[in-house]
Design goal:
single chain; about 90 residues; mainly alpha; Molybdopterin biosynthesis moea protein, domain 2; 2 domains; 4 helices
């Protein structure tokens, strides 16, 4: 029987998260309360597993909106031509 600790279930402290997310300790505590971050409490100590960190990251990920084609149906002939060329340049449908 092996006496080594299984490192696949490593727990991280609040200090570890401050370094990982590059925010202050108070920000970690505030966001944990406001956003309901998953965590483990051991007495007065708070710990986060890799699964918790992945969930926190997913909760706060911002996906930029998809670029939409400009309308070529309205405006002057000049603005329609500009919109058409913009759409072609950016690989968008007219």
């Amino acid at each position: 029987m092996s006496t080594s600790i299984d490192r696949t279930y490593q727990l991280f402290t609040v200090k570890d998260l401050t370094e990982l997310f590059q925010v202050s300790r108070s920000t970690i505590y505030r966001l944990r309360e406001r956003q309901g971050w998953p965590h483990i409490e051991m007495g007065n100590e708070i710990r986060f597993s890799l699964a918790h960190i992945a969930a926190i990251h997913a909760m706060n990920e911002i996906v930029p909106p998809k670029k939409q084609a400009r309308s070529t149906k309205i405006g002057t002939a000049r603005s329609r031509a500009y919109s058409r060329s913009y759409n072609i340049r950016n690989g968008l449908k007219e």
